[in-house]
Amino acid sequence: MYTALAEVYDLFYDGDTSARADYYCGFIPSGASGADLGCGTGALTLEMYRRGYKVYGVDNSVSMLNKARERASNAGADIDFIVGDAAELPYIKQLDYVVAANDVFNYVGNADKAFKNVYAALRDEGVLAFDISSDYKLKNILDGNTFSETKRGVTYIWQNFRKRDKLIIDFTVFSPRGETYIKTCETQVQHIRSAEQITTALENAGFSTVKSYALGKKSKPRENTERIAFIAKKLKKG
Question: Quick one: which of 75, 64, 72, 118 has its CA closest to 95?
Fold first, then answer.
């Protein structure tokens, strides 16, 4: 995933990574040690590092991690980046926090397994913080629609269609190469889950405190909220 499109991902990403880092840091103790799961090109990883956190970057795309390492190196940041799947997390343990921004858990097929593995990787009092595209957004805004944009001579076309509880996403990118263009295609799948389903899966994984918010706020998500943040805490046993 995001293998062929790693070269143009940052060009078209329009999220406010600094604001997202500030938001998540409001739920995580200062100076904590953790992981940015599904870190992509490492923008959020670097922001967490700059705020004084020890952070590992984890992603299953080698191409995206290469971009992340380049970003960190250019910033003079000492960050370890690890190839790994969001559903597994078998390689780093005893973390104070795990963040997973911008749809990471939309892409995970087996959310129950993923949450259990994150729970096992956290210390007592550890925090899992992440945001997803809501079922409202996937069903009512993306499904059946096509989006297109051109920046710096690069054009992307983003087509979406729903198949039961999944959204199939077809990306086509035309990138200039001299006097011609290179066409790159990639298909992704996002899983459609309600906030209630996510909360239940987190509780079944062992998290005792689970809260959901409209991303960037401390208010509950509404029916038409497009992006939902979840904050789940592993309570100390005994």
Answer: 118
* Beta carbons within 8 Å of 125's beta carbon, 6+ residues apart: 96, 233, 234, 235, 236
118 plus 141 within the same structural domain: no
pLDDT along the chain (238 residues), means of 10: 64 81 96 95 96 95 93 96 82 90 95 94 96 97 95 91 96 88 91 97 96 96 97 84
* Residue 65: alpha-carbon gap to chain centroid: 14
77 DSSP 8-state letter: -
Round to whole Å and give the CA distance between 70 and 8: 15
Confirm whether 1 is domain-assigned. no
Here the CATH number for the domain that contains residue 103 is 3.40.50.150
Are both 99 and 15 inside the same structural domain? yes
**Do both 85 and 182 map to the same domain?**
no
Cα gap 212→75, rounded to integer Å: 33
| pTM of the model as a whole | 0.92
* Alpha helices, DSSP H, located in 94-238: 104-107, 111-121, 135-136, 195-205
By residue range, what is the domain housing residue 20? Answer: 9-133+194-233
For residue 180, list its beta bridge partners: 177
Is 87 within a domain? Answer: yes
